[in-house]
């Protein structure tokens, strides 16, 4: 294993463990609710995470192949989006009150989401170039074995740090966020040791303006005119912003013309409707009497399920293909809301506790299903197409950011049970789409 693979391996493992302490499905909803006592802020956090993560990828899609040093670029973005969590921790330590605490959290969380969105495309492109195709599945598997083993330990720490659902104090989360923050810092120390085997000059890519067509622009001069030694740009070339827009449009049409990409996107839409209910599973149980599980216990079972799910989908993707993993993920997404509906119906105290353990564990497993979708996207695209497929796919998932906000309104008007049944019906549609996908590892 080369030094670059080692760096990417340890960076990914540290990231998985660290973000467990900032988990958007469990820890952050409970923290935000303890500070604001409003579910709307939980939906806002999901929207910020999705939008802040996706929009930078659209910009990076046209820039990733022109970065003079992708490794140094990624490191600089890490330097921008990770140390600022210290400001939030200081606010928690000082006990400045609920409103300043909430403001400092959303400020740091927004910067972090944007920074990680900027990193996503060059990181995955670096991974794709540094790891041979036949080794990617195995390396991803080891990343998730190590990362989710650490995440399981993290879940145990979280369950002990937040043992009581009635605390409602922001300072109770200080140990959790501190450990997560410390785990984000090592990448700043060793990431520069990675080496990119790609050429250090921009890769020439055919421009949509490279011939005189309906665009009305003349043929561009030789690409050698635009190397790093010659800052002069020919007057016949179009503005860079216009070039970027047309390039994005060209790749957008190319992606949507791919049948597997289209089925994958609609399958993701169908399963993403789970965001109407999943952020509020934990909050809904805390509002009910006769639930003995503490907040920390419910978070632990969900994180344990997420760790087990990552191993399950990694194994299925490596042995059976990511199409099989997506079919399994769709089936689990179908049964998860139904299990929580059953928890609302059961009146037996003992059976309720057992069902809640099973429900939160299954929720965690189902939430890891996105791993198989992303791995399938990497498999179906070549080195040249990969950054654009990743960015366009993320762009198409942008409306999903509003689902948690819509979920708060649906729960008020339709109730939890009916909303969960709608989510299960959408998962059936996602399962059918997953069945129509071809195995990306087989030649077309």
TrEMBL record:
<dbReference type="InterPro" id="IPR011701">
    <property type="entry name" value="MFS"/>
</dbReference>
<feature type="transmembrane region" description="Helical">
    <location>
        <begin position="355"/>
        <end position="377"/>
    </location>
</feature>
<feature type="transmembrane region" description="Helical">
    <location>
        <begin position="40"/>
        <end position="61"/>
    </location>
</feature>
<feature type="transmembrane region" description="Helical">
    <location>
        <begin position="418"/>
        <end position="437"/>
    </location>
</feature>
<feature type="transmembrane region" description="Helical">
    <location>
        <begin position="329"/>
        <end position="349"/>
    </location>
</feature>
<dbReference type="InterPro" id="IPR020846">
    <property type="entry name" value="MFS_dom"/>
</dbReference>
<dbReference type="GO" id="GO:0022857">
    <property type="term" value="F:transmembrane transporter activity"/>
</dbReference>
<keyword id="KW-0813">Transport</keyword>
<feature type="transmembrane region" description="Helical">
    <location>
        <begin position="298"/>
        <end position="317"/>
    </location>
</feature>
<feature type="domain" description="Major facilitator superfamily (MFS) profile">
    <location>
        <begin position="246"/>
        <end position="444"/>
    </location>
</feature>
<feature type="transmembrane region" description="Helical">
    <location>
        <begin position="173"/>
        <end position="192"/>
    </location>
</feature>
<keyword id="KW-0812">Transmembrane</keyword>
<protein>
    <submittedName>
        <fullName>MFS transporter</fullName>
    </submittedName>
</protein>
<feature type="transmembrane region" description="Helical">
    <location>
        <begin position="102"/>
        <end position="127"/>
    </location>
</feature>
<dbReference type="GO" id="GO:0005886">
    <property type="term" value="C:plasma membrane"/>
</dbReference>
<keyword id="KW-0472">Membrane</keyword>
<feature type="transmembrane region" description="Helical">
    <location>
        <begin position="261"/>
        <end position="283"/>
    </location>
</feature>
<feature type="transmembrane region" description="Helical">
    <location>
        <begin position="73"/>
        <end position="96"/>
    </location>
</feature>
<keyword id="KW-1133">Transmembrane helix</keyword>
<feature type="transmembrane region" description="Helical">
    <location>
        <begin position="389"/>
        <end position="406"/>
    </location>
</feature>
<dbReference type="InterPro" id="IPR036259">
    <property type="entry name" value="MFS_trans_sf"/>
</dbReference>
<feature type="transmembrane region" description="Helical">
    <location>
        <begin position="139"/>
        <end position="158"/>
    </location>
</feature>
<dbReference type="InterPro" id="IPR052528">
    <property type="entry name" value="Sugar_transport-like"/>
</dbReference>
<feature type="transmembrane region" description="Helical">
    <location>
        <begin position="7"/>
        <end position="28"/>
    </location>
</feature>
<dbReference type="Pfam" id="PF07690">
    <property type="entry name" value="MFS_1"/>
</dbReference>
